[in-house]
Sequence to fold (250 residues):
Amino acid sequence: MSVPLKSVDHQTDSPSASAESYIQVDDLRFALRRSARRRTMQITVERTGELILSAPPDVGIAQLRDFVTEKRFWVYTKLAEKERLQRQVPRKEFVGGEGFLYLGRSYRLKLVEDQNTPLKLANGRFALRRDAQEGAREHFIRWYSERARVWLSGRVAEYRSRMEVMPVGIKVQDLGYRWGSCGKGDWLYFHWKSILLPARIAEYVVVHEMAHLHEAHHTAAFWLRVERAMPDYAQRKAWLAEHGIDIEGI
Fold:
């Protein structure tokens, strides 16, 4: 997948003389392809995971590095998406001692003979009634969804005034590979798995979607709104791009 970006100004530093070479920025290695027909810089993430940076012949190395640095979170996200699609997440077995995440912390599962609800979190453990083990996945999804609805609603209420928005409400459901979505009628949608993320990362998902109530697309104005509400959003965004794939499935 590629994303076209705006044309660039000429730099005084000299560009690479080769038609195709490589440029390394942190842990990202790009095949550099220059063409006299190009007027823009463009990053492509191939199906194999290979990274390609296409550019006009007169764009200097320093500007190329700045461009890649600016877009590195997008690159991490695309690489994570490809890895997720290619990797089978182990299914939970719902046996005693198995770990389950909640707001970034792992809690061990304990099977119990008798309790008033099929599943609850108590004394630092998830307790699953043994006769509910066959439908354990549905019980966990229901438990996570209920907690997510309450927790996420609280974060939305906290940021409403600061971000000058008034969403109609939130809905928690399975959103596939998306953590959140801003729907028609000013509804906010969140994946139930958002409640598995560390609190500060789930909070970033909330702010991100609330910013979409102002700006539909990821424009400069959109990111400015996110930054005003959450000055350290870039660090949280980077964490989600790099580690979100590690959040365990159910």
